[in-house]
């Protein structure tokens, strides 16, 4: 099973949930934990893996041979990301906008465009007991996270339980990390900001056709609107974690919830069983109107 753990905003406890699930499942089975929060990967802090492999990730950037170029502008015309422009007999390349799709070089009528690799980050692999960690790390200053996330996901072995720690938010990196999951666990907090960002995340997984459930972290504050929203949208609340300073202290020291408070292991084992049951339900993907599809 491929389970993605996401949140509409940062700081909700997404990594706390992902690592607690991985540590719980690893007591009996092999688990792959993919840290796709490549701008700030931190799952390793909680599982204490030993990194054994690291390799760079490149994206192809266009390079123009102006001795062949006729400045026809076809390259700029086909670039969906405005990464290339032709102005006054000059071709301008904007590497920070380039997605490495290759359309400009493929469609150049003069074959004047080649591609050269630009390193944008690394993928690292390590182990901690039965957990295999694969994490991406985006080079500081580089804006393009999806290519690194794709490289991380190439290591998925479907024979194992796979947990993906998704970047926060609802932008392109989130879509890249979540897509092709069997189930998406959305972590939120019971506040107005939490509800707003949860609704955005739900819209993303609906569009991708992925069934989802919710974990409410720091329960005990708020006005109950998150629970009402989930009820109205027919989205199951699968786990509630109270607002507890002892949990916050564990997190600040890099200690996972299930290691710091062992009685939570059974709760997370139950959580995973419920996730598998929800994912197996016919028509479990939420439809556009917020009701479960039939």
List the helices and strands and how they pair.
Elements: E1 2-6, H1 14-25, E2 31-35, H2 43-47, E3 50-64, H3 74-78, E4 84-86, E5 91-93, H4 103-107, E6 113-128, E7 131-138, H5 146-153, E8 161-165, H6 172-178, E9 183-188, H7 192-208, E10 212-219, H8 225-233, E11 237-242, H9 245-252, H10 257-260, H11 264-280
Parallel strand pairs: 1-8, 1-9, 2-7, 2-8, 9-10, 10-11
Antiparallel strand pairs: 3-6, 4-5, 6-7
Task: Give a nutshell description of this structure.
The protein has 294 residues and is an alpha/beta fold. It is built from 11 helices and 11 strands. The strands form 2 sheets. It has a 9-stranded mixed sheet, with helices on both faces.
Q: Would you give an account of this structure?
A:
The chain has helices at 14-25, 43-47, 74-78, 103-107, 146-153, 172-178, 192-208, 225-233, 245-252, 257-260, 264-280, and strands spanning 2-6, 31-35, 50-64, 84-86, 91-93, 113-128, 131-138, 161-165, 183-188, 212-219, 237-242. The chain is of the alpha/beta class and 294 residues long. The protein folds into two domains: 2-29 and 160-280, P-loop containing nucleotide triphosphate hydrolases (Rossmann fold), CATH 3.40.50.300; 60-119, Alpha-Beta Plaits (2-Layer Sandwich), CATH 3.30.70. The strands form two sheets. It has a nine-stranded mixed sheet, with helices on both faces. A two-stranded antiparallel sheet has the order 4-5. The radius of gyration is 22 Å and the shape is elongated.
